Amino acid sequence: MTDNKELPRIIYYYQTFCGLNKILQKPCYVTHIHLASIHFGLNDNDKPYIHLNNYEPYNSKFDSVWKELEKATELAITVILMVGGAGGAFNDLFSNYKTYYPLLKELIQEKRNIIKGIDLDIEEEVDIEDVKMLINNINKDFGNEFIITMAPIQSSLEHDVPGMGDFIYKDLYKSEEGKLISYFNTQFYFDYSKTGYDQIVKNGYPPEKVVMGMITNQNIDNDYLELQKTFQEYHPNFGGVFIWEYFDAPDDWLDTIKKIFLERILENPDCSIL
Prior knowledge:
Elements: E1 9-14, E2 32-42, E3 48-52, H1 63-74, E4 78-84, H2 90-95, H3 97-110, E5 115-121, H4 128-142, E6 147-150, H5 155-158, H6 169-173, E7 183-187, H7 194-202, E8 210-215, H8 220-234, E9 240-244, H9 253-260, H10 262-267
Parallel strand pairs: 1-2, 1-9, 2-4, 4-5, 5-6, 6-7, 7-8, 8-9
Antiparallel strand pairs: 2-3
């Protein structure tokens, strides 16, 4: 699925659950929330589990989180479920796929009114064929309207070299499964620059599929300048911006992004990206 391109994507990753009230307001300018993060494993009695961070996603401690995310969907914010990241997930998932994938499928089905897509943040060495299998299963089970995204580091899109998953993203992108990837939440954590974005586009990735990701411990004032230059160059096909993560994002982050994207946001203030 591809997103409605009326607006550039404005994405928060959300892992430290501190409350979303400050962004769940009308008019709504946030387009996506990526809920982090899903992991798999065995508990003390060797029973397989799926966890949202450190607890089962159905634990009552997350009741308020799901309620807020439901409100977010009512404001037309798209909620994406992130799997993996620095805490891992995929080695466990692929080592016992027939056990763990049904747990993931069940969670998405249970929260289908909220979860509109999945973000595969692969930071472990995996077999690319397993990644293709997962993408195919997700698409088969949830349909073309269900968004599939990935979160590579920028160097693995700038050049055709193995990323943290030890596979070449270009090989995946050029495959039939690659056609199902809606966008790349690219981790521009070490070189937040228009030059880096240009190189990714030059390497064959359409700008509308490349989100320019920030992390809060960078020189964020410089990031804003680079984002502005990049947006001006690629508008109206710029893929958007994300920040890791909501909990410690600068208080003025959203306002600053709104100013950079002002022209397009004013065209559609109802935050209508799917």
